[in-house]
Structure formats: structure tokens, C-alpha cells
């Protein structure tokens, strides 16, 4: 008979938590393909979704404490954002064009139909929780930033077309939404419309990681074998290195990052993807 080499590949995605004063980095992944979608302002909760085998056919959204205690399933679909008070999770149906607002405590979910969007998973609540911003495209058009009231009604565009479909964050005063512009750099878009504010030192490859507490700075991160986190001062454009995140065995890690950072800079999370391959030798094949 003949011999063959057979490889079995195990793809996994997880999320590591970097907590204030702790050297350990809990893995917040729940099943096999955990994506981090939002981090609460106090750093205590992360919104995850599972879109692999463990998540089921419709996907599953979870809320998990960053201390590593068990996840709570919120419903089907994918996660989009947590409200600042942690009371509501914004999710979307994986197969239908609608957002679903899910109460974290008692209460009924509320559906927000959006007929004309190719719905993405990137959004953020305004500080008072009455609206959220999201990046999306209507069929045949480029992506823009939209603002939607949680009470319903049409979504209002606040930018021209051509944005990159990626994370967005609302400033603490609600006046700006940070997003990735057509030039692959981060800009602050006024929620009332008008010219964006450039972040002079933003570079291609930057992913948004959050605003600082008073809105004077924006955290950005770059993917790599280590995830680099910097803070860009909005007024001066000065870019300051904050820390490098690491802490997972490098075997098979395809990507690490981007990060999410709490406004106080004390808690960070970063997703990773890894491929672990097992090689088998099969002998005497017939």
C-alpha cells in the first residue's frame, strides 16, 4: 500500500482580557469562534458572539464578565454594541435585515427593521442611550455613518459615502463619531454633519479601540504578533505608546488584536485567531 500525510486543522477565535493589576489574561472565548463586539465602560462586561459550530445556525450573542465567570446567552445573531450603562445590547439578526435591542436584565427585546441596508456588525451607543451610530452601506452605494434612534424611525446619514466598514465609537459628549475614513485613517465625524476632524498621526492599519474618559484622546491599536495600543491626542495629534498586549502562546496564532480599551485605560481586551494543525501519517492506504 501507499503512505500519505493528512493534516487536520483546528480554527479557533478567542478574546483575552487584560485587567488592571492582574498578570493573568483570562480567555473570554465561550465556544470555538468568539468575536468581541463591545466592552462596557467599567471594563466588567464584554459582548461576544459565536459564529462557529458552537454558536448554532443563527449565531449566538453572549454577555460575559471579564473576570472569566460564565457567559449569559442573550439571543440569536451577532453582537453590535453595549449601552454605556450596560442595560441594553444591540444585536442584529444574521439572516434578516434588522437590529434587535436586547435588555440585559428583565424585559422584552425590541426589533428595529432596516429594509435597505447590507447590515454590518459595527455600531456604538450615544452616551444617553437614546441613539446609536453604525457604519453601513445601502445596496449599490458606499458605506457611510448613520445615526438611528432606539425608538425607531429612519436612520440618518451623517457622512458622505466611502467610509471603511469597521468599528466606530461615539465621543463622551456625543458630538463626534470616530470611524475609519476612505483614506484608511481615523477621523472624527460631527454628529450634526459637517467636515470631519482629522487625527494627524493616525496611520493606515489603525483600528479604533475607544475614546479616553474626557474625549481628548482616541485609543488605536495595530494587529500583529503583539497588539500595539497607542493614544492619539485629538487637539495636537500627538501619538503616545500605551502598551503592547501579548500573553497567548504564539503557536498557530494567525492574528492578535485589535484591542478595545476602557475610557480610564485600565482594562483592555484583544481578540485572536489561531490555527492548530495536527499532522498524521497514514500507512498502507489501499
Topology record:
Layout: E1 2-18, E2 34-39, E3 45-50, E4 60-65, E5 72-76, E6 78-82, E7 88-92, E8 98-103, E9 110-113, E10 123-125, E11 131-136, E12 144-149, E13 156-157, E14 169-170, E15 176-180, E16 186-190, E17 197-198, E18 207-211, E19 217-222, E20 227-233, E21 239-245, E22 253-261, E23 268-285
Antiparallel strand pairs: 1-23, 2-3, 3-4, 4-5, 6-7, 7-8, 8-9, 10-11, 11-12, 12-13, 14-15, 15-16, 16-17, 18-19, 19-20, 20-21, 22-23
What would you note in describing this structure?
The chain is 0% helix and 50% strand. By secondary structure, it is an all-beta fold. The chain starts with a strand and ends with a strand.
Task: Specify Rg, calculated over alpha carbons.
Answer: 20 Å
Mean pLDDT: 88
Main β-sheet description? 4 strands, antiparallel
The secondary structure category is mainly beta
Low confidence ranges = none
| Distance N to C terminus | 5 Å
Number of helices: 0
Topology, number of strands: 23
The percentage of residues in β strands lies in: over 45%
Q: What is the H-and-E element order?
A: EEEEEEEEEEEEEEEEEEEEEEE
C-alpha geometry: globular
- Helix coverage percent: under 10%
Amino acid at each position: 500500500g501507499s503512505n500519505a500525510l493528512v493534516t487536520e486543522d483546528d480554527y479557533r477565535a478567542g478574546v483575552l482580557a487584560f485587567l488592571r493589576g492582574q498578570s493573568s489574561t483570562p480567555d473570554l472565548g465561550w465556544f470555538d469562534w468568539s468575536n468581541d463586539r463591545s466592552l462596557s465602560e467599567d471594563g466588567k462586561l464584554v459582548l461576544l458572539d459565536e459564529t462557529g459550530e458552537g454558536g448554532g445556525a443563527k449565531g449566538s450573542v453572549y454577555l460575559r464578565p471579564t473576570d472569566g465567570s460564565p457567559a449569559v446567552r442573550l439571543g440569536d445573531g451577532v453582537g453590535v454594541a453595549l449601552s454605556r450603562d450596560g442595560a441594553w445590547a444591540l444585536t442584529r439578526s444574521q439572516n434578516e435585515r434588522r437590529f434587535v435591542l436586547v435588555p440585559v436584565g428583565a424585559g422584552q427585546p425590541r426589533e428595529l427593521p432596516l429594509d435597505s441596508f447590507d447590515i454590518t456588525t459595527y455600531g456604538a451607543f450615544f452616551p444617553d442611550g437614546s441613539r446609536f451610530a453604525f457604519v453601513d452601506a445601502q445596496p449599490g452605494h458606499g458605506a457611510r455613518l448613520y445615526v438611528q434612534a432606539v425608538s425607531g424611525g429612519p436612520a440618518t446619514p451623517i457622512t458622505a459615502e466611502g467610509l471603511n466598514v469597521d468599528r466606530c465609537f461615539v465621543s463622551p459628549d456625543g458630538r463626534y463619531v470616530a470611524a475609519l475614513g476612505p483614506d484608511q485613517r481615523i477621523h472624527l465625524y460631527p454628529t450634526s454633519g459637517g467636515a470631519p476632524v482629522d487625527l494627524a498621526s493616525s496611520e493606515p492599519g489603525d483600528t479604533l479601540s475607544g475614546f479616553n474618559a474626557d474625549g481628548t484622546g482616541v485609543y488605536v491599536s495595530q494587529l500583529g504578533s503583539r497588539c500595539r495600543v497607542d493614544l492619539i491626542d485629538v487637539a495636537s495629534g500627538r501619538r503616545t505608546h500605551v502598551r503592547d498586549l501579548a500573553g497567548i502562546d504564539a503557536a498557530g496564532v494567525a492574528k492578535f488584536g485589535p484591542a478595545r480599551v476602557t475610557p480610564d485605560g485600565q482594562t483592555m481586551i484583544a481578540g485572536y485567531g489561531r490555527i492548530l494543525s495536527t499532522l498524521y501519517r497514514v500507512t498502507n492506504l489501499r
